[in-house]
Design a protein that fits this description.
heterodimer, A: 5-stranded mixed beta sheet, two-stranded antiparallel ribbon, B: Four Helix Bundle (Hemerythrin (Met), subunit A), 5-stranded antiparallel beta sheet, 4-stranded antiparallel beta sheet, 21 helices
Chain lengths: 179, 663
């Protein structure tokens, strides 16, 4: 009987470990923080264009077709990492709208020249106010917006080929097919 | 070339750690003294190699070598030198390297200063240390290489997270890790004792100084973290029950319990298997602390590593260390001999109560921190368990702990006389009541809760003094005799008095800030004045200033008391380059009894020229950290006790009655 007491700690520990391990082993990525804005209309906003560009970005531009909205900045190294993935999406004829966060216009232009410009249009969010309305913690963050202008997906991490193949393209195809 | 050398040193250190964790263990099992001696040489060599790797990473940061990814991500050429150095551990990879560096230093210290340990025990302890080292070196090499190079190095780095560019936080991780990792020694001793199947007072005497050192460092580390939170985050809170704060509080509570139960093993040869279990749990909680921060399971301002692969690796380490140790415990602990018996009302009984309360408090924090994660794991729902939960569960346990502490310290070993002990505490009890009521009256009221809280605070200090007075028989025998007795008291006794009194000072600080804080949040334009706790606070001016790596708006406040000048406070809202992150820098004026605290926010859109300002009056808040420092001093004084320096009595002698006076 006395022996049994000494087994209690390891049993409790095994129980706790199973609880703990579940979210990790299930592959729930904590960086995919669920956005409370999912399935909500995009916040109303209007952002000016980069110098030399015709058009900025406003919430009105996000209606009518399924689109990607990508928050980026020239100072953000992960954004550089995901730049090729954005070009891949562009080449798949998926429109991408850019929100340039807290950037100096000259740096942003340099960045686009260096890494290519996958964006249909870009709005300059110098004071980060609009990014905050989108619930963005930083950059890069990527959203998928449906034809009615509702946010359907958010990713708070650089896009990888894996994300494109298994998440982004399937979802966009589904949304394009109507619901 | 140099970073590769660092990486190579880590690989070598891992190989040495592997040797350290196997050869001495086999040697101890076979009684081969040469094999056992490998443990010491390996521990020293491992420490030298890891120190080399750490020095190389520090060098890369200091010279701003932007071919190294870790430097690019956490440093910036224009950053002040101090933060280039502290930036070494201000990130995931570097902080893990700091972790193993401290572990290796402890290992080396055991090897160097453990010459009076029995050879078999020393070999086994070092082997267990080697296993922990191997696990964490493997973690670094597999998932968190600090020496990773970039093929296309940028011209400048991204800079250290501006929140970390602060002296309080810069030195918080080293002390925290000195504490966390220091408990690994108690863990290794516990596992070694389980392998040997023997725990005796000599064992406890070796374990106690290590635990005491780790506890002191952890106390300081936690206090620094809370001080940092108080003066940087801009809302004047010093403890937010944030998961990462709780992660450091849990090993502290368990370590405090361990510190006390080890006394019982040392003095009375009792509570042995419980002390072993506490050693395992305390280090496991340190590992959980590392796990919580490193896995990204908690969403909190502190967590800078969001990488599930790392989480799984640390979880694996935790399962191997804790699971292994607890399995060993289940098998071997029942065969440990039961020790001395004691009555419930005795010093031992008091320490058992202390342990029960501390471990229950620890369990409360554990549940409150992890319950939201359980729920998330089971249902996918995200909830947050906030301060109300902790206040409702933690405080009701803390109050009996505090009240019993004064009495327990008065009780003799084996069998005590509760009435007699209470009788000797009557002055302390009366003093707490009178002082609490007097302070409450002088402060002209406030929540009634302040009275019991103040009674607890004064009681802690008063009973600590009463205990010393009783020992030296102050006012009972001639004063000079009392002084002679005081000089002869063991340092450990003074350490206890200091630590307990420090806790009292801390409780007073918590009470003041929790119950008497005044705050004013408003829009102020230059020239506007606000009344705060009897002072007039006027916003004099707001203007731009430039720092080495930030631009700021500085608000200058002038504090006056009935027209008399008191202080000028400067609060800034900084934008730190190159991250363009906003950081508040607050202005504080302290007079030791209270802080006046000012923070400036965004311009108010509704009122041109006005800024949102937050002004606080925090009575007694400095006492929280003064109390913590007194507690740490208590730990240090106790560490200098002669009996710890002259080493443990030999095992044959250990069963003889204690020669030293019982404390």
């Amino acid at each position: 009987m006395r022996r049994l007491i000494f087994i209690v700690p390891i049993l409790v520990f095994v129980g706790l470990t199973i609880y703990f391990a579940t979210p990790l082993l299930r592959g729930t990525d904590p960086s995919l923080i669920p956005s409370p804005l999912i399935d909500k209309p995009v916040p109303a906003f209007e952002l000016p264009p980069l110098p030399g560009y015709q058009k900025g970005l406003s919430s009105g531009d996000l209606k009518g077709q399924v689109q990607i909205v990508n928050i980026f900045a020239s100072w953000c190294i992960p954004c550089r990492a995901e730049a090729p993935a954005l070009m891949t999406l562009k080449n798949m004829n998926i429109p991408i709208q850019g929100i340039n966060q807290k950037d100096k216009p000259a740096d942003a232009l340099e960045y686009l020249k260096e890494l290519g410009d996958p964006y249909v249009s870009i709005g300059m969010d110098i004071d980060r106010k609009v990014s905050i309305d989108w619930g963005a913690y930083g950059a890069p963050e990527t959203f998928i917006v449906d034809a009615e202008g509702r946010i359907r997906y958010k990713q708070a991490a650089p896009i990888t080929q894996d994300d494109i193949d298994n998440t982004i393209v399937p979802l966009i195809n589904k949304l394009r097919a109507g619901k | 070339m140099i970073p590769e050398l660092g990486q190579f040193a880590l690989v070598l250190a891992a190989l040495v750690a592997f040797m350290q964790s196997t050869v001495p263990l086999v040697g101890a099992a076979r009684g081969n003294s040469r094999w056992m001696a490998v443990g010491s040489s390996a521990a020293i060599l491992q420490c030298v190699l890891i120190l080399l790797a750490f020095a190389i990473l520090a060098y890369e940061h200091i010279v701003s070598d932007f071919t190294v990814e870790n430097v690019v991500e956490n440093s910036f050429a224009a950053m002040p030198l101090l933060y280039k150095i502290t930036g070494v551990w201000g990130n995931h990879e570097g902080s893990m390297l700091l972790w193993v560096t401290i572990l290796a230093i402890y290992g080396m210290l055991i090897a160097l200063f453990g010459s009076n340990l029995p050879r078999g025990l020393k070999a086994r302890v070092l082997a267990v240390q080697g296993m922990i080292g191997l696990g964490f070196l493997g973690f670094i090499l597999a998932t968190s290489d600090p020496f990773n190079r970039l093929l296309d190095p940028p011209a400048d780095g991204q800079g250290l997270n501006p929140l970390l560019q602060d002296p309080g936080l810069a030195f918080h991780p080293p002390f925290l890790y000195l504490g966390y990792v220091g408990f690994s020694v108690a863990f290794s001793f516990a596992v070694a004792a389980l392998i040997e199947g023997r725990v005796d007072p000599a064992w406890a005497r070796w374990v106690r100084p290590w635990t005491l050192a780790a506890w002191s460092a952890l106390t300081l580390g936690v206090a620094m973290g809370s001080w940092w939170a108080y003066y940087t985050l801009g809302w004047g809170g010093w403890w937010g029950w944030d998961p990462v704060e709780n992660a450091s509080l849990m090993p502290w509570l368990a370590g405090t319990a361990l510190l006390h139960s080890a006394i019982v093993v040392e003095k009375r040869d009792a509570l042995k298997s419980w002390t072993i279990l506490l050693s395992i749990l305390t280090f496991s909680l340190s590992l959980i602390g590392t796990f919580l921060v490193r896995s990204g399971l908690t969403t909190s301002v502190h967590s800078f590593a969001l990488d599930p692969a790392r989480g799984i690796f640390v979880l694996g380490l935790l399962v191997a260390a804790t699971g292994g140790a607890l399995t060993l415990y289940a098998i071997r602990a029942p065969s440990l001999k039961m020790g001395g018996l004691f009555q419930p009302i005795s010093r031992e009984g008091g320490l058992v109560l202390n342990n029960l309360l501390l471990t229950t408090m620890c369990a409360t924090v554990f549940i409150g921190t992890l319950y939201p994660m359980f729920l998330n794991a089971l249902t996918g729902k995200t909830v947050s368990v906030g301060p109300p939960f902790f206040n409702a569960t933690f405080l009701p346990l803390a109050v009996p702990l505090v009240l019993a502490l004064g009495v327990g310290a008065m009780l003799p070993w084996k069998r005590g006389d509760l009435i007699g002990a209470l009788g000797r505490l009557k002055f302390a009890a009366a003093a707490s009541l009178i002082i609490a009521l007097a302070v409450y009256y002088l402060h002209s009221g406030g929540p009634v809760l302040a009275i019991p809280a103040l009674i607890c605070a004064v009681w802690l200090v008063g009973s600590a003094i009463a205990e010393v007075a009783d020992r030296i028989r102050l006012f009972v025998i001639p004063f000079s005799h009392s002084m002679a007795r005081a000089a002869a008291l063991p340092r450990a006794a003074w350490g206890m008095t200091l630590a307990h009194a420090g806790l009292g000072v801390m409780v007073a600080g918590m009470t003041g800030t929790a119950l008497w804080t005044e705050e004013r949040i408003q829009a102020m334009a230059p020239g506007d004045s606000v009344e705060l706790a009897g002072y007039q606070v006027q916003l004099k001016s707001v203007g731009p200033v430039q720092g080495p790596n930030y631009d700021a708006e500085r608000a200058t406040f002038v504090v006056t008391d009935k027209g008399q000048y008191v202080a000028t406070l400067a609060a800034e809202r900084r934008t730190v380059h190159p991250q363009e992150q906003a950081v508040t820098n607050i202005g504080i004026r302290t007079n030791f009894f209270a802080d006046i605290y000012a923070a400036v926010g965004e311009p108010d859109p509704a009122k041109p020229g006005a800024y949102v300002t937050r002004l606080y009056h925090h009575p007694l808040v400095p006492w929280i950290w003064v109390g913590a420092v007194i507690m740490v001093l208590g730990g240090i004084v106790s560490l200098t006790d002669r009996r710890l320096r002259i080493g443990a009595p030999s095992r044959r002698m250990a069963n003889m009655p204690e020669a030293l006076p019982a404390e």
